[in-house]
Design goal:
Number of strands of chain A: 15
Distance between the termini of chain B: 46 Å
Number of helices of chain A: 7
Number of helices of chain B: 7
Largest interface: A-B, 87 and 105 residues
Shape of chain A: globular
Mean pLDDT of chain B: 95
Number of strands of chain B: 18
CATH topology of the largest domain in chain B: Rossmann fold
Number of domains of chain B: 2
Distance between the termini of chain A: 55 Å
CATH architecture of the largest domain in chain B: 3-Layer(aba) Sandwich
Strand order of the largest sheet of chain A: 11-10-9-12-8-1-6-7-13
Low-confidence stretches of chain B: none
Radius of gyration of chain A: 22 Å
Largest sheet of chain B: 7 strands, parallel
CATH architecture of the largest domain in chain A: 3-Layer(aba) Sandwich
Oligomer: heterodimer
Mean pLDDT of chain A: 96
Structural class of chain A: alpha/beta
Helix content of chain A: 25-40%
CATH class of the largest domain in chain B: Alpha Beta
CATH topology of the largest domain in chain A: Rossmann fold
CATH class of the largest domain in chain A: Alpha Beta
Structural class of chain B: alpha/beta
Strand content of chain A: 25-35%
Radius of gyration of chain B: 21 Å
Strand order of the largest sheet of chain B: 7-11-6-1-4-5-12
């Protein structure tokens, strides 16, 4: 089985986000960047499928040169190959733009794959757009937010999380799958893996290598303002013994907040 | 014209779709245009009238027996067929599980960009602008579109429903020719837990527990509170989920769900930054925690510094009393 996993470099979830009001961007200085958490489940699932069925796992990232670090991590986890598609444009929050790059890369460079795996969303942009857009651009079936995946020959089945329930899907390969937390427990890199990853070359492609013109790379969304959410003010501390405090709280929720 | 996709689940139009429709009607007023709705499915006739009280002029029903099983492939084809015919300026979806799955597929088919999970919409110089949280709400981005139609998914539980008005409108039926062979993947079954609760993203009240709950068995205390509180669901912090106490479906925060209920009750949750990001847009926050220095108190409207195991039983009784009245 040939599996491509698409991963993104993002600020870790403990990050405080500061905004540069002048150009409506997030200040990157001082942020700690990691492999997007949901992408880890995608990489892990790819490795498990390869271990069970044989084949090859190729990990691809679209982003700046700094994304080589997360690709190294994926290699250390056990991926066979990694490729960076170098894109130095600032984050445009436009999933279609990235999807076009990925779809073209798959058509030109990663043919003969059986599965394209993604995290269900990249932490930060929080778009949840790219997997479904890539599926559409490549005319493939999709199952997003997957917590269980089974592949049998040329078909697969998956459980996808919806509101308060799981939806069971059946699909044919090749297919696009996006991973949700709960799909598996990602492994840690081993020392042996880290050493092996160090030796591996990571080829770097540019959008130009994919024959993508500037026009196609232009985002269609424009950030006109970026701001911090309005600060919440600390409210009242309700004093008293548990019984008294509980009574006061319920009274405040009814008469002051008017929500129950 | 503004078109709103109305999602049908278990024979009913979802409330979050009606919220999107209500917001569509408000923007249509600004833009001096009309709001229309579209449903995709099988045997939809009885559902068409649901949309009219929210200001809808026309309801399009795109029907084929193939739509009885959801597939983003078939549904997007149905929607794009209609969009190309009636050419809306704006298309709204609810950012529900289905909306998040379907809208990007529709956008890519149309070759336009999409703004996901918006919490505000507005018009500026007659054009749509949307605001959406990024980094799970640690920042807000306001976005303008340079492709058309403008596609956006709207977060559930954020946009108020308009007061129901007229029951009158036009129903337009569309047939689509499509066969099973064209569809490569589809939903074949829905597996619902026995006695499944409301999803945290849809609940009006979220009763959430963290590390301070001390173990999985104590989540029954929270479930007892949700039994008393209407439209409520149990939530959890990442540490409680990672410890295996609660299923991930309940996790609130940056690697879980972002919620904005009317009331968020946080028990034994310290308030890590990734958790606060996922719930700070709640209308009212209550925190119960032993540690007076816990960061959760900085965002809480009401706080009780104390032992949650002592507070919850009293709280349950007080709530029962007041809700019975």
């Amino acid at each position: 089985m040939k599996i491509c996993v698409f991963v993104k470099r993002v600020p870790d979830t403990e990050s405080k986000i500061r905004i540069n009001q002048e150009n409506n961007t997030v200040v990157e200085e001082g942020l700690n960047f990691v492999l997007s958490p949901y992408d880890e489940y995608a990489v892990e699932e790819a490795l498990r499928l390869r271990e069970a069925k044989g084949g090859q796992v190729v990990v691809v990232s679209v982003g700046p040169e700094e994304a080589l670090v997360i690709l190294k991590k994926c290699l250390a986890m056990g991926a066979d190959e990694a490729v960076l598609i170098k894109d130095d444009e600032p984050e445009a929050y436009d999933g279609l733009r990235i999807s076009k790059i990925i779809a073209l890369a798959v058509t030109k460079k990663f043919t003969d794959f059986d599965l394209l795996l993604f995290g269900k969303q990249a932490v930060g942009t929080d778009n949840s757009q790219v997997p479904a857009m890539v599926a559409e651009l490549l005319n493939l079936p999709q199952v997003n937010v997957v917590t269980k995946l089974e592949i049998e020959g040329n078909t697969g089945s998956a459980l996808r999380e919806i509101e308060g329930a799981l939806e069971k899907y059946e699909f044919s390969l090749p297919a696009v799958i996006s991973a949700q937390k709960g799909l598996n427990e990602p492994r840690y890199e081993t020392l042996k893996g880290i050493m092996a990853a160090k030796k591996k070359e990571i080829p770097v492609l540019t959008p130009k290598d994919l024959d993508l013109g500037e026009e196609e790379l232009k985002p269609n969304l424009k950030i006109v303002k970026m701001e911090s959410p309005p600060p919440r003010e600390a409210g009242k501390i309700i004093e008293g013994e548990p019984a008294e405090a509980a009574q006061k709280l319920v009274e405040l929720l009814r008469n002051e907040a008017k929500i129950i | 014209m503004i078109l709103v996709y109305l999602e049908v689940r278990e024979g009913k139009v979802k409330k979050s779709s009606l919220e999107a429709l209500s917001e569509g009607e408000r923007r249509a007023k600004d833009m001096k245009t009309e709001v229309n709705a579209v449903l995709v499915g099988d045997n939809l006739e009885s559902l068409a009238s649901v949309a009219f009280p929210y200001g809808t002029s026309k309801v399009y029903l795109v029907q084929n027996s193939i739509f009885s099983q959801y597939s983003a492939e078939s549904y997007s084809q149905a929607l794009v067929g209609l969009i190309e015919e009636i050419k809306p300026d704006v298309l709204f979806f609810s950012a529900s599980a289905m909306g998040k799955d379907l809208a990007p597929r529709v956008a890519a088919k149309l070759g336009v960009s999409l703004a996901s999970d918006c919490t505000k919409t507005a018009t500026r110089d007659g054009k749509l602008e949307v605001t959406r949280p990024i980094f799970a709400g640690k920042a807000l981005a306001t976005i303008a579109f340079s492709s058309k139609p403008c596609l956006a998914t709207l977060r559930p539980n954020v946009f108020p429903l308009t007061e129901p008005g007229s029951e009158q409108g036009e129903v337009i039926k569309k047939e689509v020719a499509m066969t099973d062979e064209q569809i490569k993947g589809k939903a074949v079954d829905v597996i619902r837990e026995e006695g499944a609760e409301l999803d945290v993203t849809e609940a009006e009240i979220v009763v959430s527990g963290g590390r301070g709950m001390k173990g999985p068995e104590n989540y029954d205390l929270l479930r007892e509170l949700t039994d008393v509180l209407p439209q409520s669901a149990v939530g959890a912090s990442r540490s409680a989920v990672d410890a295996g106490w609660v299923d991930h479906q309940h996790q609130v925060g940056q690697t879980g769900k972002t919620v904005s209920p009317n009331l968020y009750l946080a028990f034994g949750i310290s308030g890590a930054i990734q958790h606060l990001a996922g719930m700070s847009s709640s209308k009212c926050i209550v925190a119960v925690n032993k540690d007076p220095e816990a960061p959760i108190f900085k965002v809480a409207d009401y706080g009780i510094v104390g032992d949650l195991f002592q507070v919850i039983p009293h709280l349950k009784e007080e709530l029962k009393k007041i809700l019975k009245e």
